[in-house]
Amino acid sequence: MRSAVLVSISSLLALTGCSTLDGPPPVLRATGPVSPSASVANKGLIGRFAASAGAAAAPGASPTAATAMLEDGFTLVYAHCNDFFLHAGREQSRLLVLKDATAAAGTLAAGIIALSTGGTGGKTALGIVTLGTSATLSGIDIYTQQYLFGAENVDAVRELTLNALSAHGTTVRTTSPATYNAVVAHLFDNQAICTPRRIAMLAREAIQNGKVVASPISPGSMNGRNAAADDAVLDEVGRVLGLSGKADANTTGAIFWLLERRSTAAERAGMIRPLLANVPDASNPFDPAGKLRDPIPGESGLTTALAKLSADAVRALDEQIAESRRSASVAGAGAPLPPPTFTLPQAIQANGRVNVSVQ
Fold it and tell me: Any alpha helices (H) in the chain, and if so which ranges?
């Protein structure tokens, strides 16, 4: 019994490496642009940046080629950083659960050993469990302390970091000539913003230098800026899909699920494709027979647009996707999968309310 308990605790206390320690993947190294794998060489933002970087590095390349490399590089860094925060939030949530489970399992194991063994052997086994539990909890604490954000405030730090990337890009576009060497230097600086140490520094500076201010809530906004940003995303998604106006929440939600989250063939056929029936065939991700096109028309532009959704909108879409999957599981295997009805966060009416924030 003691051996079984020790094996169970040892398995529970084994931690895998935490990829967020390294930050998002770089787009540039000293050897040049990071080469895409064969599977993505002609797809998405990575392939697009590789192509524009190659064109800008060619002898006699024009400033236009360097500008294209700069824009594609900024977009790729932004997308990598956004993906990093989504992954970091999920990982830190798992670590919090693991920490609580480790403490509970360690206490249970110690109690079982104390009741079932005695003498020197029992004391040794009890010491091993206690030491292992303490070491694991300390390791989790050390990891989480390397960041100024946890699962509960990762979205706020994500917005802070993405705003820093955008501010850097805006300044570069207005002050720097478009040459290959200058673009490489600017992209190195830009990607360095979204690294764990730099993120922590940005958050600490925001707390140290910020001041609490109160301002009226603008009518028709979640917090003002977020509502405007989400509305701009709907315009951009509608433009890329060739719609006559902005995309609605259902279309945007379907594209978000298709490109930003995993989906099964059944979910794509029954829950995603029906919401895209209003998209013209030339720009529709699905062909008339219902097969997903490869590559997806306008995928790069759609991914860029979706990366600008506010944290509130992303959270709402994720919750609605999860609810759709729960409904499908309740219906059982073989039951038709009805398409969900996506909604974005509703606007808040002003009504004299005042928002308090740190600036």
Answer: 2-12, 44-57, 63-116, 119-144, 154-175, 180-193, 196-209, 225-240, 249-260, 265-267, 299-306, 311-331
First-to-last C-alpha distance (Å) of the chain: 58
pTM of the model: 0.47
With beta carbons less than 8 A apart as the criterion, state whether 83 and 24 touch.
yes
| C-beta pairs of 98-102 under 8 Å, 24+ apart in sequence | 98/15, 98/140, 99/137, 99/140, 101/12, 102/12, 102/13, 102/133, 102/136, 102/137, 102/140
Q: Are 342 and 198 in contact (CB under 8 A)?
A: no
The label of the residue with tokens 């000293």 reads 30
pLDDT for 230 equals 86
- Per-residue burial over 270-300, b if 16 or more Cβ lie within 10 Å, else e, is bbbbebbeebeeebbbbeeeeeeeeebbbbb
Give Cα 113 distance to the centre of its chain.
Answer: 43
Residue 63: cis peptide before it, omega within 30 degrees of 0:
no
The whole-number pLDDT of residue 271 equals: 93
Q: Which two tokens stand for residue 199?
A: 């993120």
Residue 359: strand, helix, or coil: coil
CB 82 within 8 A of CB 256: no
Is residue 181 within 8 A of residue 307, CB to CB? The reply is no
Cα dihedral 149, 150, 153, 157 sign: positive
Q: 48-53, long-range: CB within 8 Å, 24+ apart, which pairs?
A: 48/72, 48/76, 48/300, 49/73, 49/75, 49/76
Quote the pLDDT of residue 205.
80
Domain residue extents for the chain: 2-193, 225-331
Secondary structure class of 29 (helix, strand, coil): strand
